[in-house]
TrEMBL record:
The lineage of its organism: Bacteria, Pseudomonadati, Pseudomonadota, Gammaproteobacteria, Alteromonadales. The keyword Transit peptide does not apply. Gene3D superfamilies: Medium-chain alcohol dehydrogenases, catalytic domain (3.90.180.10), NAD(P)-binding Rossmann-like Domain (3.40.50.720). Its EC number is 1.1.1.1. This is Zinc-containing alcohol dehydrogenase superfamily. Keywords: Oxidoreductase. One of its GO terms (molecular function) is alcohol dehydrogenase (NAD+) activity.
C-alpha cells in the first residue's frame, strides 16, 4: 500500500483526500514508476479544486507530471532503476497521475531523465518550465532575436511566466514582465532577469485594433484582453507564443495586427508534444536555467498540502514553481 491524493465527486463537488491505495488499483500501463516528486501546475489547481471540471471519471489521482525511478517495465525502452520524467498526455486528467507514491503509465509518455538532472530539479521545472522552453523555442524559430526589441511575458509571477522570464534573460533578450502582483513580485522578477516590470492592468484594457508598437515577441500565459492588447502593440513582423488562459480563454482581437504588421501567433502545447521535440526542450531548459532560479523561485510542499495550494494557484496567489515531494 502507498499514499496517493485521491479525488472523488459527490453532488458535483470535488473532494481531495490523501489515502492508501494498492498497486492493483493502478490503471494499466507498461511501466510502473516509484514517484519521487511531482509538481503543482495551474491545471492541477483546476483538477483538485474541481473548478475547471477537467476530470470526467472519479476516483482520480491527479498530478499532470512526475519524476521517479522505474520499478518494472514490460517495454524494452525502460528497465528497473531507470530514472524517468513524465509530463502531459492527459495523465492526472483521464489516467491516474503523479500525486501518488507510485504510477503506472505508457512507456510512450515517458522521457529518460537527462544525466545531470534529479527528480526534484525535473519537477521544479515540470510541465510549466517545459512549456516555457517550448514558447521560447517557438519565438526563436520564428526568427525573433534579442536585437529585435523587447519581449513581453504575461502572468510573469506564475510557473510558466517566471521560467520564461529567466530563460529569455539568459538568452540575452530584454524582458518586460507583466504581473498583477508588481509590488509583491517585482523584486523577484527583476532578480530573475526582467529589465522592466509592468502592471497587468496596463494591458487588461479594451485596446484599439493597433496600438503603438512595443513588442518584438510575447510569451502569453494569460489570454483574453491582456493578450489582445499585447497583439495590438506588436512590432512589425513580431511573434507571440501563446500557451495559457489564466485570464480566460477568450481572445477579443481583430485581424489588424496580423494583416497590417505581419504578426505571427504561435500556439504552444506541451501535452501532446512529440518525443524528440520534448526531449530537446528538456535538454535546453536544464542547460539554460541557472541555479538561482531553483533557489529563488521554487518552494516545496507535501502531498497533504496540495489541496490548499491548489486553491491558491487558481486564485493567482502562487509565485514561481511548487515542488511536491512524495
Ligand atoms: P500559474 O498559476 O503558476 O501562473 C499563472 C499566472 O497568471 C499567475 O501567477 C498570475 O501572474 C497570472 N494570473 C492569474 N490569474 C489571472 C487572471 N485572472 N488574469 C490575468 N492573469 C492572471 O500557472 P502556470 O504557470 O502553471 O500556467 C499558466 C497558464 O499556462 C495556465 O493557463 C495553464 O493552463 C497554461 N499551460 C498551458 C500548457 C500548454 O501545454 N499549452 C502547459 C502548461 C500551462 P501575475 O500575478 O504575475 O499576473
Amino acid at each position: 500500500m502507498f499514499n496517493a491524493l485521491v479525488l472523488t465527486q459527490e453532488e458535483k463537488l470535488t473532494h481531495a483526500n490523501v489515502r492508501q491505495i494498492s498497486e492493483a488499483e493502478l490503471p494499466e500501463g507498461d511501466v510502473l514508476v516509484e514517484v519521487a516528486c511531482s509538481s503543482l501546475n495551474y491545471k492541477d489547481g483546476l483538477a483538485v479544486t474541481g473548478v475547471g471540471r477537467i476530470i470526467r471519471n472519479f476516483p482520480m489521482v491527479p498530478g499532470i507530471d512526475f519524476a521517479g525511478t522505474v520499478i518494472e517495465s514490460s517495454d524494452e525502452r525502460y528497465k528497473a532503476g531507470d530514472r524517468v520524467i513524465l509530463t502531459g498526455w492527459g495523465v492526472g486528467e483521464n489516467h491516474w497521475g503523479g500525486l501518488a507514491e507510485k504510477a503506472r503509465v505508457k512507456a510512450d509518455w515517458l522521457v529518460p531523465m537527462p544525466d545531470d538532472c534529479d527528480a526534484a530539479k525535473a519537477m521544479q521545472v515540470g510541465t510549466a518550465g517545459l512549456t516555457a522552453m517550448l514558447c521560447v523555442q517557438a519565438l526563436q524559430q520564428a526568427g525573433i532575436k534579442p536585437s529585435d526589441g523587447d519581449v513581453l511575458v504575461t502572468g510573469a509571477s506564475g510557473g510558466v511566466g517566471s521560467v520564461a522570464v529567466t530563460l529569455l534573460a539568459q538568452l540575452g533578450y530584454r524582458v518586460v514582465a507583466s504581473s498583477g502582483r508588481v509590488e509583491q513580485n517585482g523584486p523577484l522578477l527583476s532578480k530573475l532577469g526582467a529589465s522592466e516590470v509592468i502592471e497587468r492592468s496596463e494591458l487588461e484594457v479594451d485596446a484599439r485594433p493597433l496600438e503603438k508598437q512595443r513588442w518584438a515577441g510575447v510569451v502569453d500565459t494569460v489570454g483574453n484582453k491582456v493578450l489582445a492588447t499585447a497583439l495590438a502593440q506588436m512590432q512589425y513582423g513580431g511573434a507571440a507564443a501563446i500557451c495559457g488562459l489564466a485570464g480566460g480563454f477568450a481572445l477579443p482581437t481583430t485581424v489588424m495586427p496580423f494583416i497590417l504588421r505581419g504578426v505571427n501567433l504561435l500556439g504552444v502545447d506541451s501535452v501532446s508534444c512529440p518525443f524528440e521535440k520534448r526531449q530537446a526542450a528538456w535538454q535546453d531548459v536544464l542547460k539554460l536555467l541557472p541555479a538561482s532560479y531553483y533557489q529563488d523561485a521554487c518552494e516545496a510542499i507535501t502531498l497533504e498540502q496540495v489541496p490548499e495550494f491548489a486553491q491558491r494557484i487558481i486564485k493567482g496567489q502562487v509565485t514561481g514553481r511548487v515542488l511536491v515531494q512524495l
